[in-house]
Design goal:
Elements: E1 2-11, E2 14-24, E3 29-33, H1 40-48, E4 55-60, E5 63-64, E6 75-79, H2 90-100, H3 105-118, H4 134-146, E7 152-156, H5 164-181, E8 184-189, H6 192-198, E9 201-206, E10 209-214, H7 216-221, H8 226-231, E11 236-238, E12 241-243, E13 248-250, E14 256-265, E15 270-276, E16 281-286, E17 296-301, E18 306-308
Parallel strand pairs: 3-8, 3-9, 6-7, 7-8
Antiparallel strand pairs: 1-2, 1-4, 4-5, 9-10, 11-12, 12-18, 13-17, 14-15, 14-17, 15-16
The protein binds adenosine-5'-diphosphate.
Adenosine-5'-diphosphate (ADP) binds near residues 14, 16, 34 and 36.
Amino acid sequence: MLVFEDLRRTYGETVALADLGGSVADGEIVAILGPSGCGKTTLLRILAGLEEPDAGRVLSDGVDLAGVPPDRRGFGLMFQDHLLFPHRTVGENVAFGLRMAGMPIDERRSRVADVMDVVGLAGMDDRSIATLSGGEQQRVALARALAPRPRLLMLDEPLGSLDRSLRERLVTELREILKELGIAAIYVTHDQDEACTIADSVVVMRAGRVEQQGTPPSVWHRPANAFVARFLGWADVADGIGIRPGGVRLDPDGDVHGIVHRIGFRGDHFVVGVTTVDGRALTTSVADTPPESGERVRLTVDADAVVQLSESEEF
Ligand code: ADP
C-alpha cells in the first residue's frame, strides 16, 4: 500500500536519511525503532508530506506522492505534542477534521460517537479538554486522528509523555483498535518494548539507515548485528558474541566460575552481574534472594542462547 524508495534527506552536514527504503502493507502495523537522532521523525514527516526529500520517492498504491499536500494523502497523524484545542470540548476536538472536510452534521455526530466508543471515551463529548488526565487526552488525540478513517495512521512517540504503566496499557489497546478497524500504521518509538508490543514488523534504524527489519520475535531472537542486540536490551554482547537474555543462570554445578560484581533490583526480580574468571561480564537474573556482591558463583550458559553477532559498520 505504501512504498518508499531511496529516501535521502540532509540538513547541512547531517545525513538524516541515507537512501532509506521500505513498505507498509494494507492493515499492517510497522514500528520504526531507533535511538534519538537516527532519522525516525524525518522519515515520518516525509511520508506525511510535511517535508520534501532531497531524493527518493514515496508511492501510495503505486502513485507517486511528490507534490501531494499532507491533507490529500489520506493519512492520519498523531504526534506526542498532540495540540488539542484546550478550550473546546472533547467532541469538538474529535470532530475537527470532519468539519474541515465539510462533512454534514448528522454524519459527523454519528462518526464522532463511533470513534469515541472505540477509544473508550463514550459519553465524554461535553467534557472540556483542560479537565482530562494525560491518558484521556491521548485518547482524544487518537479519536481525532481516527475519525476521518485514514487508511494509514502515522504515530510519532504518541505515548512518550505518559508514565510507563499507562503506556504499556495504551499500546496494547492501540494495537487492538488498529486491528479492529483494519487501519495500517507506522509507529515511531525509541522504546523496544513498545515497538515489539504494537508491531507486526519492526524496522530498526541507525543513523539514517535500516539495520534490520522483521517480525518482533525474529528481530529479538536473531538480531542482525551487535548494535541491534544492544539496542534491544541484550546485556551480554562482546567480541562478536551475544547471549540471548535468559540464556545464563546461576547453577551450583555450572561450569563457568565468576564473582558477582553488581546486583540490581527490578521489582519482580534481581539482575545479577558476574565477572567470569576469564574476565567476561555475564548477566543473569533471580526471582528471590540474590547472591551478595563479591560472592563467588557458578553459572551455566545455554549453548543455543549464544549467537554470533558482527559489529555493525560504523558510519
Ligand atoms: P529522531 O526522530 O530519530 O530522533 P530526527 O529525524 O528528528 O531523528 O533527526 C535526524 C537527524 O537530523 C538529527 O541529527 C537531527 O539533529 C537532524 N535534524 C532533524 N531536523 C532538522 C532540522 N530541521 N534542521 C537541522 N537538523 C535537523
